[in-house]
Amino acid sequence: MSDFAGMEELLQDFLLESTELLSDVDNKLVELEKRPNDRALLNDIFRGFHTIKGGAGFLNVAPMVTICHRTENLFDKLRNSELGLSSELMDVILDATGAVRDMFTVLSQGLPPPNPDPAMLAALDAALAGNLAAVKAPAQAAPVAPATPAPAPAANSNEPNWAALHQAVTGTEQPAAASPAASAPLDMVAAATMVTESAPAEFIPAPIVPAAVVPVAPKPQNKPAPSTGGPISGQENTIRIDTVRLDQVLNLSGEIGLTKNRLTTLRTEILQGNMETNTLRSLDEAISQLDLLVSDLQNAVMKTRMQPIGRLFQKYPRLARDLARQLGKEVELVITGEETELDKTMIEDLNDPLVHLVRNAVDHGVESAEERIAMGKKPQSLIELTAEQVGDHIVIEITDDGKGMNPEVLRRKAIAKGLIDAETANALDEKQCLQLIFLPGFSTKDQISSVSGRGVGMDVVRTNIQKLNGRIDINSIQGEGTRISISLPLTLAILPVLVVRACNQPFAVPLAMVREIIPIDTTAIQEVSGRPTIVVRDEILPLKTLSGLLNWQPTQKPNFGVLMQSAEKSFILAVDSFVGRDDVVIKPLQNIRPKGVAGATLSGDGSVVLVLDMEDLLAGQMDSSANGSIMLRNADNFSY
């Protein structure tokens, strides 16, 4: 079994390196389509693809070698000017790289990849022969007769033992096939079917069809879907760290050890009765030094989790290009700020929202070339994806120069779909109307297509961003374009909070939602539609008491208000008093998940402070049966 463990390690190394190489190749192919005469760019593409082919050959992955070899021949003819690059030819090349990416997904599960799609191979051969008519419609190729199953490898073959490798990677055995002769093709079909059904369509430009036509094995019910961020088993549990950062952590750990020794010595002196001024001063200095070192160590450890967001952005040029081709639009995606660093776990969770926003910009945001020319614009639309660090937050923006959004149209659509009533809609200003696109079921499309129209995407985008303690804002000018801004904390490991008190209990609210703190004057409270409100700088804001959200009986009249921003809503949270600002590490509550509580932390005096999930709390008042659960007076139920 150790041999297969070694094979698994080789496979993981190959997938890690090759996935990054393939993403780089895809991006450079999109650039090559814009600059077809750039020989240096073509040579870079050739080298990257050749490296992938070499690794596949070393692992004896024959189907991948077949695709890579024919695509390399195509690159060679382009390099020697024997072929001219066209959009149709680029479609075939990108289909081939997509098939290789799908094979990565299958390999990550310890399964043999299926034979290449015969229609795709026929398109590659036609492209090599210069037959562009066949290249334009590769999917219409005649059906291929069933191929004879390949014989089992000989005992001295270099072919990996896929059954054992699959068990080593996943911890489960491959399902037994109906007959030994058909077992390998059957596993290939099952793997190909699983990849095609579970992965998002935008990452599978060409479906993998096995050469042998055999019954498809049923899809396992308990197998997780492969990640679109990179089909590498266990990749989410690994991270690449610069050795300089690790050296910094090691040095700080050593200094903390020395300070600990100094504190131990001082403690011994004090226990022996040495309470001289110099001893107490030395104790104070040692504690101050330890505080600084722990803060530096905390920052250094956080930096080890930080990864450049460019690793996420590199997927989107091809995504935008393929969708634009599908919709018949001319789109250029410009990316800036790839070096901006963000917590790795947040990068992974950002993938789906950003995929949807980029697709939305191409589908909804920008016009066709004919529409743009009629409006006096350039035929090619521009979409910009940027990232930058602003203070202790990362701001990601997706901007297009398309038609923009009409607030009145959005208002009418929301009313027509029954998402809000006419009275509520008429009370919304233009900025609030733009926020209507986040409502579940809202869509500006009258017909559902494979790309959009179901009114699900933007609701999911906002939900995912809020789970990351972030905010999403929209600015749009009709006829000029739309800008969607996402603001995220640098890391989720440490959460800045404002600690408040209500009903003699401390609570922590995310500082990212806090705009300002104001005193509450009871004479300034007015009722609008039967609800208490306060006017702050000509803005009418609803007043919500924290005790009311918790469904508790107030012990006193609230003295202060926290002006908070929750998604598109602003409101004032009335509290009894404040404890102060703090940076906390959220820990889960064991066997308890009250509504509106994200977790808990410990204060400096050792008491438990509940961290509130304001979005969950605002969705509905806390059930009174949970009152006893959340009044924690000790740390018995606290996992620290």
TrEMBL record:
Residue numbers carrying Phosphohistidine: 50
Matching Gene3D superfamilies: Histidine kinase CheA-like, homodimeric domain, Histidine kinase-like ATPase, C-terminal domain, HPT domain, SH3 Domains
Catalytic reaction annotation: ATP + protein L-histidine = ADP + protein N-phospho-L-histidine
Record-annotated HPt domain positions: 3-107
Histidine kinase domain sequence ranges: 251-492
Coiled coil: none
One Pfam assignment: HATPase_c
Segments forming domain CheW-like: 494-623
PROSITE patterns, A to Z: CHEW, HIS_KIN, HPT
Name of the protein described by the UniProt record: histidine kinase
